[in-house]
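Treating backbone geometry as a discrete language has practical consequences that deserve illustration. No coordinates are needed to read the tokens, only the vocabulary itself. For completeness, the protein is quoted in full, as a sequence line and a line of structure tokens:
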Amino acid sequence: MTMEFIPSARPLIGDDEREAVDAVLRSGMLAQGPEVAAFEQEFSAELTRGRSSVAVNSGTSALHLGLLAAGVGPGDEVIVPSFTFAATANSVALTGATPVFADIDPATFCLDAASVESFVTDRTVGVMPVHLYGQSADMTALSALATDKGLRIFEDAAQAHGATWDGQQVGTFGVFGAFSLYPTKNMTSGEGGMLTVDDATVERTIRLLRNQGMDRQYQNELVGFNMRMTDLHAAIGRTQLRKLAGWTQSRRAHAAEFDRRLRGVVTPPVAAGAGHVYHQYTIRVEDDRDGFAAALKSEFAVGSGVYYPVPNHRLPSFARGVDLPETEKAAREVLSIPVHPSLNETEIDRIVDAVNILATAGA
């Protein structure tokens, strides 16, 4: 009998989301309007301890506008991880500043503070930790370093909705936090992003930049973009936000099963003080990762993903000759297996059996 394929990600869109979109369609107000304003308020209340939230059209836009509003631009350097999606470094480059790549902690896959320190120059204005795979970077060490060196922190929290460090929610440590609401994230608005800020001037600048530089129609105060979120997307996001806590609980339960039952691979440790939300459950396969992934699919109908096989510093768009050994090692070994909340017990069992059989065969 053919096994049903288990995808690495499975966006959860149901009747609640459809009804929310239909209500917006019936209202006739489709662009940025009351749904966006309500989504911003609810996101702040749920995920940022009251920090202001500003909705935009993508996570990349959130990073870009946050940096611009913080005054980052030509001549500046911002230290970023190379082991992340290219949007992190792209957002820095798009301001005219230079992304400088640092290495990661091999356990958490997040920026290593000691590596960051080694790349600080007199042009460095900030550091952008990525809370990768749903686990917070070491914000104790990075915050101490930033204070010591006079740097600002810009958080890429694209994958970390609800994650914490020592009980504090990510997105509340820096000048801004940027979240993605792409379909495969822990919650989605269909497409979109959210910025969290606690500086009124930065917040107002972001609001201007997302809307052609206007606070009032035809009163353009600066040169801006069209990076608004629509009410259609906000309606989906509001519905998903109400489900996020339950979905996070499911992700953590699935991860605990994998921690307990997987053999022959390196499972992801959780740093002391981190509240992991498991956007991805990322194992290390030290020998022939790509063959392992192919066998999961062909023999067991289990999907997986490699995030990220090419570090940013080796992309043609950046191509920096820098030595980042932990980044290179992770790029060769990481494999993310399904952990999404819609998994059932039978699927969990099949994933566990598949990983253990293949790991044993390769031993």
In short: The mean pLDDT is 96. The longest strand covers residues 52-56.
